[in-house]
Design brief:
Layout lengths: L3 E5 L23 E3 L3 E5 L6 H12 L11 H10 L1 E4 L16 E4 H11 L2 H14 L4 H8 L2 H16 L2 H12 L5 E5 L7 H17 L3 E5 L3 H6 L3 E4 L6 E2 L6 H12 L6
Parallel strand pairs: 3-7, 3-8, 5-6, 6-7
Antiparallel strand pairs: 1-2, 1-4, 8-9
Helix pairs in contact: 1-2, 3-7
Organism: Aminipila butyrica
Protein name: AAA family ATPase
Pfam families: AAA_15
């Protein structure tokens, strides 16, 4: 499902060229970014992909959006200059809001949750916080904390921690964070995952988009993600935000060339 058709990135220029985030996009001519069920923003370090994701999360007003220190005025000004358009539902009516479950999830958020639930003293706090992010009220949280359902879920998490690696625990956290009919912005979700688990998560995202009617905007430079996702891919390393096939991207071609040079070692 597509809830937001596209995002208009501010093209306004200011005299103070070192002001964030104007300085990130100073030499870019990106303009309008069409969004599909799964949209991937590819780019090397300093390409602006994480900045753009956070700007979108702030503009959409979803959980996980971050403000910044320093040039807060310019940051808010830039967000105000951006815009987006809602899609229409099956009856031709425009969506007016996003699901409250919609979230901006960064790789460090997942790693932080893994570390928290690995410490039993923080396990309950972490699990209740995830329930709060999912929309459970504070009153209901107090009831849930002492319920059988909470005890059973905590036992399952403890068992998973004993059985699974950090990467497998990260996959479980992603699964627990996804709700139907919601929009998710993911920043490098492949972090801490092996190539096999990267492919597995990418396949799950394809399924969540198809069967749970979720929409995803993802920043990644993982060839395993890029080659598995049923996505529109935009190259942020170009000045004009061009759409690319995954096999054309620099990082992917580097992997291809590397293994080609060592091909005889796999015989």
């Amino acid at each position: 499902m597509v809830y937001i058709n596209g995002f208009q990135i501010s093209t306004h220029k200011i005299e103070r060229t070192n002001a964030y985030p104007y300085n990130v996009f100073e030499h870019k001519d990106w303009g309008y970014l069409p969004l599909g069920p799964i949209t991937v923003l590819y780019g090397n370090n300093a390409s602006g992909k994480s900045t753009l994701l956070n700007i979108m999360a702030n503009k959409f007003q979803i959980k996980g959006a971050e403000t910044i220190r320093g040039d807060f005025q310019y940051f808010q000004q830039f967000i105000g200059e951006c815009s987006f358009t809602f899609n229409e539902d099956d009856q031709g009516r425009s969506f007016q809001t996003l699901s409250p479950h919609s979230r901006y999830i960064k790789s460090e958020d997942i790693l932080y949750e893994v570390k928290k639930i690995q410490q039993d003293s923080l396990l309950v706090e972490s699990h209740l916080y995830q329930q709060f992010l999912a929309g459970v009220s504070l009153g209901k949280l107090a009831e849930y904390e002492h319920s059988w359902a909470c005890k059973n879920r905590l036992d399952e998490i403890r068992f998973a921690l004993e059985k699974y690696s950090n990467g497998e625990t990260s996959l479980q956290i992603f699964e627990d964070s996804i709700y139907a009919d919601s929009l998710y912005i993911l920043d490098e979700p492949e972090m801490s995952l092996s190539p096999q688990n990267q492919v597995l998560l990418a396949k799950k995202i394809n399924e969540w988009a198809r069967f749970l009617s979720c929409q995803f905007i993802i920043a990644t430079h993982s060839p395993f993600f890029l080659g598995t996702l049923d996505a529109s891919i935009y190259n942020l390393d170009t000045a004009d935000l061009r759409s690319c096939h995954w096999s054309q991207l620099e990082n992917v071609r580097f992997y291809h060339q590397f293994f080609k040079e060592h091909e005889e070692e796999f015989c």
